[in-house]
Amino acid sequence: MLSFSDYLDAVPKVELHLHIAGAIRPATLEDLATKNGLHLPKRAEALYRFETFYEFLDALRLAALSLASAADFRRAAYECLEDMHRHGGVRHAEIFFNPHYFTPNGVAYPEIVDGLIEGCAHAERDFGISSLLIACIDRSVCLPSEALQMLDWMAQHPRREVVGIGLDGAERAGPPLLWVEAWRQAGRAGFKRTAHVCEDNQAQFEAPPAHFTLCRDALGCDRLDHGYNILADPDVVARAAREQVHFTMACWSGLTWNRAPRRQRIKAMFDAGLNLSLGTDDPTIFGTTMGHCWRTVFADLGWGTAEARKLSLSGLHASWLPPDRKAALEAEFTAALDALERDLNPADRSVDLSVTRR
Ligand code: ADE
Ligand code: ZN
């Protein structure tokens, strides 16, 4: 019979919220930095310790600079997909990459995407995990003109795997209205759209519920990343529930003091009937895995098989896979969930909170 922890690790999942620059293994970061002549002021593990959200973003951008060739992107993509597969039962992932992070290294857009695509293909061959890519703009370091530039690159080098655009970085530095032209152009070009919004690493005045409304109405976002700060406005919560817009939430990427409060926000949003899934965001920087993320949330919130089934299937439905692949995966997910529930030891509710379990 399956322990509750084994069950949670094995539940089939999609990962819709992961940044490649935040998913580089510490050893790989050091290795690539040495190879590419990037000076790291500290060992990777120390670099991945910080006090503020803004120091975290600096660490993330520095880690990104370790990637300087197609082979580096291939390795980063392969390893992060291997980690998702081994530590949390992820069967499909949609990965953010910020092309502008790599321009100081002289890496052009096609080299980035083709390296990532190759790593993703190798991971699918070896682990059966599929993936798509989301080109992303860091609003703290990019101008709106650079978002348009990214769309030009995407138009000049179309790849089936690059299905959408995202917006990350510090919300206070680049509120939604700055990005209207680019997001509308992306919509016309057939790309899906998302944005980090209402993230609770920032105060209500920096990342207010009104940004949810702008992301939907002005940017046309198909789904949203984070979203916790909308809880301050019941009208926005009611609209999000009515429209069933999907939120890709992150269980462990808050600062340490904010993790338990964030779990309560996730619970409040789930209980309000919102459509959501759990992601790892920046798993190696924050020291988490998908399995760890799920076990931590389920242990803390007292969740069980009904919640697991709901999250598993909501994430899949919100993915940007083509309908035929989504339908095939839905059949796989449902069969796997049924089998896991049959095997689960109903008497076991203890949860192992280790980051990796094998
Ligand atoms: N980039 C990577 N992770 C992020 C996060 N949690 N918030 C904003 N930008 C990010
Ligand atoms: Zn994120």
UniProtKB/TrEMBL annotation:
It holds the Pfam family A_deaminase. Residues 12-332 form the Adenosine deaminase domain. GO terms for molecular function: adenine deaminase activity; metal ion binding. One of its GO terms (biological process) is adenine catabolic process. Its cofactor is Zn(2+). GO terms for cellular component: cytosol. InterPro entries: A/AMP_deam_AS, A_deaminase_dom, Ado/ade_deaminase, Metal_Hydrolase. The keyword Transferase does not apply. Keywords: Hydrolase, Metal-binding, Zinc. PROSITE patterns: A_DEAMINASE. It comes from the Bacteria. Belongs to the metallo-dependent hydrolases superfamily. Adenosine and AMP deaminases family. This is Adenosine deaminase.
